[in-house]
Amino acid sequence: MTKPEVPILYKTDLSAVDWQELRALLIADRFHNGRTAEQLEESFRNSFATVIAYAGPQPIGTARALSDGVCNAYIVDVWTYSAYRRQGVATAMMALLEAKLSGQHVALFTEDAVPLYTTLAYTEETVGMSKVIGTWLRRHDSL
């Protein structure tokens, strides 16, 4: 994907997302975690808040929040297409998500973007645990 010279639009409405295209972009940009297009769509639709950044018709960024709507939220799938990194896309997406998370403790996990999140006032924590229940990325047809 070449970088067009168009303004970046940030959308929270998922109705026009081409999930196959988004999955292909994630794969091409080495940010794919194995979800099918259907699982990617389900992940986003089941989220508390979502943002997808577009340069023209092309998606160039994603971010979503999982939340109980009261006191706890978790940010996941923050991605900016490589050609658009370090231009404020992730920062803008995070601001849009955070606007919907007032009063909540917001957590996230990152290995590569600590400097970005530090500039957004996130602090590193030394304790964290995780576990996969059952099979990673369950398939609907196997239920």
Automatic annotation (TrEMBL):
Residues 6-143 form the N-acetyltransferase domain. Pfam families: Acetyltransf_1 (PF00583). InterPro entries: Acetyltransferase_Butenolide, Acyl_CoA_acyltransferase, GNAT_dom. Keywords: Transferase. The keyword rRNA-binding does not apply. It comes from the Bacteria. PROSITE patterns: GNAT. GO terms for molecular function: acyltransferase activity, transferring groups other than amino-acyl groups. This is Putative GNAT family acetyltransferase. It comes from Armatimonas rosea. The lineage of its organism: Bacteria, Bacillati, Armatimonadota, Armatimonadia, Armatimonadales.
